[in-house]
Amino acid sequence: SAENLVALAGIFEWQIDFNTQIRPGDRFRMTIERIDDAETQAALRLDTILVAEYATAGGASFVGVRYEGADGLAGYFDAEGRASKQMFLKSPLKFSRVSSRFGNRYHPVLKTWRAHKGTDYAAGEGTPVRSIGRGTVSFVGIKGGYGKHVRVSHGGTYASSYSHLSRYGVKSGATVEQGDVIGYVGATGLATGPHLHFEFYARDKQVDFLRQQFPRSEPIADAERPAFEALRDRLLPQLLATPFPGRATDVVAVEPELDEEPMSQQ
Question: How far apart are the first and last CA of the chain?
Fold first, then answer.
């Protein structure tokens, strides 16, 4: 379903920018929990992704195994127990398209070539704009050609800014978490149509965000590693033994092991 595909993108959104890096020949496969009716055993829906793999046409492969820790918090980890989650999201918008990259470009309003120190994401007006990482909102307001503008400080080294917004979702001084909505796509300032102009700063210098690499979040704790490895060793071989679908409509049904409880009872 569309919900399953959005969830898949959510697992790997720290490794892959689904706005810019999807290519013909990319493939994916996943094992999804099926929720059955407790009385009739009829399938109601496909729910939580338990394990997934995304393989790019270029040969890279990303795996995510869902693990719920003793604290009740769930996340996705690779086969070595490293968290899929990283310091920053790959994109401030869930789904859009890049209309202008970092570098030089012909400005459609000023009619001249000039440096373009950010990335433009084409999206419909009102599309939610997310903070790429945890931080403090250092500026909210009109900023010249940027129009309605929000800047977020991510500690002492990094900062990000979001421009041409139609309206704000935060106030100056607020603390935001990764993925929080800080505004909405618009066309304020020097813009010919709705889009997000996004800039990323390292030590106050604008850099090409799409080329940056950032550290992962914390891996599986040592105390939880045996439980994680037991789950991984049950789910991952089953997934990898299932061929990639040849078409979008190909679905391979995998029956649960006999010693497992039905999904409807879990």
Answer: 22
